Automatic annotation (TrEMBL):
<keyword id="KW-0819">tRNA processing</keyword>
<dbReference type="InterPro" id="IPR014065">
    <property type="entry name" value="tRNA_adenylyltransferase"/>
</dbReference>
<keyword id="KW-0808">Transferase</keyword>
<dbReference type="GO" id="GO:0004810">
    <property type="term" value="F:CCA tRNA nucleotidyltransferase activity"/>
</dbReference>
<dbReference type="InterPro" id="IPR003607">
    <property type="entry name" value="HD/PDEase_dom"/>
</dbReference>
<dbReference type="Pfam" id="PF12627">
    <property type="entry name" value="PolyA_pol_RNAbd"/>
</dbReference>
<keyword id="KW-0547">Nucleotide-binding</keyword>
<keyword id="KW-0479">Metal-binding</keyword>
<dbReference type="InterPro" id="IPR050264">
    <property type="entry name" value="Bact_CCA-adding_enz_type3_sf"/>
</dbReference>
<keyword id="KW-0460">Magnesium</keyword>
<dbReference type="InterPro" id="IPR043519">
    <property type="entry name" value="NT_sf"/>
</dbReference>
<dbReference type="Pfam" id="PF01966">
    <property type="entry name" value="HD"/>
</dbReference>
<dbReference type="InterPro" id="IPR032828">
    <property type="entry name" value="PolyA_RNA-bd"/>
</dbReference>
<keyword id="KW-0548">Nucleotidyltransferase</keyword>
<dbReference type="InterPro" id="IPR006674">
    <property type="entry name" value="HD_domain"/>
</dbReference>
<dbReference type="Pfam" id="PF01743">
    <property type="entry name" value="PolyA_pol"/>
</dbReference>
<dbReference type="InterPro" id="IPR006675">
    <property type="entry name" value="HDIG_dom"/>
</dbReference>
């Protein structure tokens, strides 16, 4: 007798596949003019061409953009001969790995020769060898959902590893065994976490097991490649999912050891919150405060997200059990800023990004000295001055850092920060806080004191800046009098 539940599941899966396939047809029709034109040129030259990998996956998901990936049996030099007369521009950055890039109209295109690549046990660079069939090319790809192709111009769908079914089931599997796949390219373990975060897919149990057992293999991959994958994960729609996978498999211990270190042992009375869970919630709350993608400067903000992820990494090193039973983390923001700088430097982030994220980590507790609003105007000015161009991000990070379940406390903190932002806005309107400078510039100071450039002028400038922060704007005569008074006191 047929099983009604199984029939229902089969029908549901079939419906999902047909929906997926309809979306793919629509997407492929959109890119067809440029793709078919290019395919005919390869065909006339005696070669084959197929849309492949992420492009096919995204077409099936209804999210194909203008970046198109193709694979071919033509060798790179033959690819160059075909695309040069056709494309608007051509680049050869990846030609050593069999990839030729070009731009045609609004499309950025990469054409890669069938290939297989693998690491030896000590190398950080893959050894590339070319293949002769698309099946050989697809089996070396990272996951089944990326191992599908559409042969052009005839539009033949090629899926030897069940990628379409895995796509419908929203699961990540490898074409061959995960052990072979991760041995060939250990960075694929990072990609598993990244795709889980980007696509909101589950990772197959056997893949998770291999990631856990082989995590140490990631050590042979360069810091730059690891960083790039981490960025894509953090900038995804579901970073928490990918970060959890990195922590649970042990990969985070190599990539970002400060994150699993946040899973502090809690004392028996639970006198402090789970810092790891708190951090993941802060990250999600910070993401919710980002401006929409369609607004100027909107969309995922790497600086804000990294700051949210790293803001409490100084806590394990500063945790103290006080005599009254409380748990303290004194100066964890200062320690955390130094740790952030060290970790981001090791991951080869740019100096500017390191500086910005470290600064936000250092400042993230500053607001908690605001209390019920007793800050002086001077303190507000210093808050704005210290944050500088990071002020809007600091607003978002500070608001995100409230994860208490006590609604009364959460509302009180929110109102207090509303009050601080209102005071900042009022002072900015009155005093141009965004560009706080002394009321006298360096040239004026030298002219008034009759002294040339040197350390004394620097000290005078700093003194006048402190007066500006403390008292607000002064008239020119008041500033001159204050400068002369300071100068007289210098002897």
């Amino acid at each position: 007798m047929p099983n009604a539940n199984n029939d229902s599941l089969t029908q549901s899966s079939t419906n999902e596949l047909s929906h997926v396939q309809r979306r793919a047809v629509s997407e492929l029709l959109r890119v067809s003019p440029v793709a078919d034109d290019l395919a005919r040129r390869f065909q006339e030259a005696g070669f084959t061409l197929a849309l492949v990998g992420g492009s096919v996956r995204d077409a099936l998901l209804g999210r194909l953009g203008n970046d198109l990936d193709f694979t071919t049996d033509a060798r790179p030099q033959d690819v160059l001969k075909i695309v040069r007369p056709w494309a608007d521009s051509v680049w050869e950055v990846g030609i050593a790995f069999g990839t030729v890039g070009c731009r045609k109209a609004d499309f950025d295109i990469e054409v890669t020769t069938y290939r297989s690549e693998a690491y030896d046990r000590t190398s950080r660079k893959p050894e590339v060898s070319y293949g002769d069939s698309i099946e050989e090319d697809l089996v070396r790809r990272d996951f089944t959902v990326n191992a599908m192709a559409v042969a052009l111009p005839e539009k033949e769908f090629i899926d030897p590893h069940g990628g379409l079914e895995d796509l419908a089931a929203r699961v990540l599997r490898t074409p061959g065994t995960p052990e072979e796949s991760f041995s060939d390219d250990p960075l694929r373990m990072m990609r598993a976490a990244r795709f889980a975060a980007q696509l909101d897919f589950e990772v197959a149990p056997e893949v998770v097991t291999a990631m856990t057992e082989m995590s140490g293999r990631l050590e042979i991959v360069s810091a730059e490649r690891v960083r790039d994958e981490l960025n894509k994960l953090i900038l995804s729609d579901h970073p928490r999912k990918g970060l959890r996978l990195l922590v649970d498999t042990g990969l985070a211990a190599l990539v970002l050891p400060e994150l699993p270190a946040l899973r502090l042992e809690r004392d028996e009375h639970h006198r402090h919150k789970d810092v790891y869970e708190h951090t993941l919630i802060v990250l999600e709350q910070a993401i919710a405060l980002e401006a929409p993608r369609d607004q100027p400067g909107g969309g995922p903000d790497l600086v804000l997200r990294l700051a949210a992820l790293l803001h409490d990494i100084g806590k394990p090193r500063t945790r103290r059990f006080e005599k009254d039973g409380r748990v303290s983390f004194h100066h964890h923001e200062v320690v955390g800023a130094k740790m952030t700088k060290s970790r981001m430097t090791k991951l080869k982030y740019s100096n500017e990004l390191v500086k910005d994220v470290s600064k936000l980590v250092e400042l993230h507790l500053r607001f908690h000295g605001y209390g019920t609003g007793e800050w002086t105007d001077s303190a507000v000015r210093r808050y704005v001055r210290d944050a500088g161009p990071l002020l809007e991000r600091l607003h978002k990070l500070t608001r995100s850092d409230c994860t208490t379940r006590n609604k009364r406390k959460a509302n009180a903190l929110s109102r207090a920060y509303d009050g601080l932002e209102e005071r900042i806005a009022k002072l900015q309107e009155q005093e141009e806080l965004d560009a706080i400078r002394p009321d006298l510039d360096g040239n004026q100071i030298m002219e008034i004191l009759g002294v040339g450039p040197g350390p004394q002028i620097g000290k005078a400038y700093k003194h006048m800046l402190e007066l500006r922060l403390e008292n607000g704007p002064m008239s020119h005569d008041e500033a001159v009098a204050a400068l002369r008074e300071w100068w007289a006191a210098q002897g």
